[in-house]
Design goal:
Blueprint: H1 4-11, E1 13-14, E2 30-31, E3 34-37, H2 51-57, E4 62-70, E5 73-83, H3 95-101, E6 105-116, E7 119-130, E8 133-143, H4 151-163, E9 166-167, E10 170-178, H5 184-204, H6 207-213
């Protein structure tokens, strides 16, 4: 006998067919004054993948990581994770927990609301610290056509989509840079750079890629 939950799941429809994430392969090679540089092992600290993180990565349909460099500007590390189907039991892994599991001390910052690619977008922020490394991280979590910030907002948006009988797709767009030191001035300057980079990234992208990012 088929359960009520299974019947509901069968009736729900995904908002993005398989293969619609292909535009992610065509991220701009140049973004403002930055240009893509293939990653090398000595550029950033190696990441040790623990069991929980590995399980989270297995949920994603596409993962892309790139480094962008510019003269007299900090290196920007870009990571994009894409999921075709997001539900309460299968969501994005929170970046804060990912960094914490790698031994970083994580300090959350006040989220910001800004305009990226002409859209109002919520951006989560935190500083991850380990020994002498101070990494400022910004990320946007898109679920369907919304960019909720925080666990409650994310759960609410997924629930709202389920009420409409949708299984939404989503993208987590994460950028980070290394701060020269950990103080309010450096954080403010770094945050301004990351927000500028995100806006340039979306503006430089084609409409199909823009739709996937934000």
């Amino acid at each position: 006998m088929v359960s009520t939950g299974a019947l509901v799941a069968q009736r729900m429809r995904s908002s993005t067919p398989a293969g619609e994430d292909q535009p992610l392969e065509y991220l701009p090679a140049t973004i403002g004054g930055w240009h893509h540089q293939p990653a090398q092992q000595d550029m950033i600290d190696p990441v040790v993948t623990d069991t929980a993180f590995a399980e989270a990565l297995a949920l994603y349909d596409r993962i892309i990581a790139r480094d962008y460099i510019a003269q007299s500007m900090p290196r920007i590390m870009l990571n994009i994770a894409y999921m075709r189907k997001i539900q309460q039991e299968s969501r994005f892994h929170w970046p804060e927990l990912c960094y914490s599991s790698q031994g970083f001390n994580v300090s959350k910052l006040q989220p910001v609301e800004t305009r990226i690619g002409g859209r109002k977008v919520g951006v989560a922020r935190f500083v991850a610290e380990r020994i002498n490394r101070h990494e400022l991280v910004h990320y946007v979590m898109r679920i369907a056509h919304e960019t909720p910030v925080g666990s409650l907002a994310v759960r609410t948006e997924i629930f709202r989509q389920s009420l409409a009988m949708h299984i939404p797709d989503g993208t987590m767009l994460r950028t980070s840079l290394i701060l020269p030191e950990r103080n309010s001035k450096a954080i403010a300057q770094g945050s301004k750079i990351l927000l500028q980079f995100l806006d340039l990234l979306v503006a430089k992208s084609g409409p199909n890629l823009q739709a996937l990012l934000v």
